[in-house]
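Quick check before the chapter quiz. The format below is the same one you will see on the exam, so make sure you can read both the input and the output lines.
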Amino acid sequence: MTTASGQAAEQTSVTVIGLGEMGAALAGAFLDAGHPTAVWNRTPEKAAPLVAKGAQQAGTVAEAVAAGSLVVVSVKGNDNARELLESAGDALDGRAIVNLTDGTSAEARSVAEWAAGRGVEYLHGQIMTIAPGIGSPDTVVFYGGSQSVYEQYLPVLGLLGGKGGLIAPDAGVPTLYGMAVHGTMWGTLNGFLHAAALLSDEGIEVKKFLDQAGPSVSALLGIFPMIADEVDRGEHATPFGALQHHRPSVEDLVRESKARGINDEFPNYTLGLVDQALRDGHAQDSYSRLVEHFRKP
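Here is the expected output.
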């Protein structure tokens, strides 16, 4: 397999800056695939397991950067990422940067702007897994930024995860994708854990509930495309399942929770959103209308 430039993928030299849990997993994936891999970390001792596998340990960031044509950064905070890259000086010339550091979209764009001013091609990535998931064909990594970097090093980047891809030329978009997934995850998990508390209070095994109510729970994901379409179009009126029909069920959940002494903050929050929408005249709208609550006033 070769890159777009004709360079053999298995010979691509890679540098990994930052050897925390994720950085070490990234470097391990490159090493396992036979790539010459240089590593650097503020705490040099963390490199020992990777050096034992064949990694080259660099004494400075500049030395590490000089050793790889592709420079992968995974550290705590984008300010830190930029500071470390700046310390490499002229060693950055001719290198491609893939920054996999978590942060906000503005922070990702700031590093991208610095890189552009420095004349360095830059790609920002958002990894959607924990460290053990690196290398799985099901692991998603969203990328934004330089298309040429993405295309040239795709065989190497593909070692990190089998799904995802270049989603935008804007380096900030991958972080927004990641936050959208996480926000959906936490909201869903909180709702499920509230349900689990309710079921457990009755002595019902939560696993048994899933076995018997699984189709209903799984069907919830099926309505996401419909909600997304309504939000994108800004049209929320619906002949079925309007907000006025949600309210009695939400209120029942609040009353059941209170009666059992289960924390009712989560369903009460939902009831407040629905009630406000009804007061605003949206009784005939679908649940997607509540997006207005979360938008800027």
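If your answer matched, good. Strands lie at 14-17, 37-40, 56-57, 70-73, 96-99, 121-127, 140-145, 163-168.
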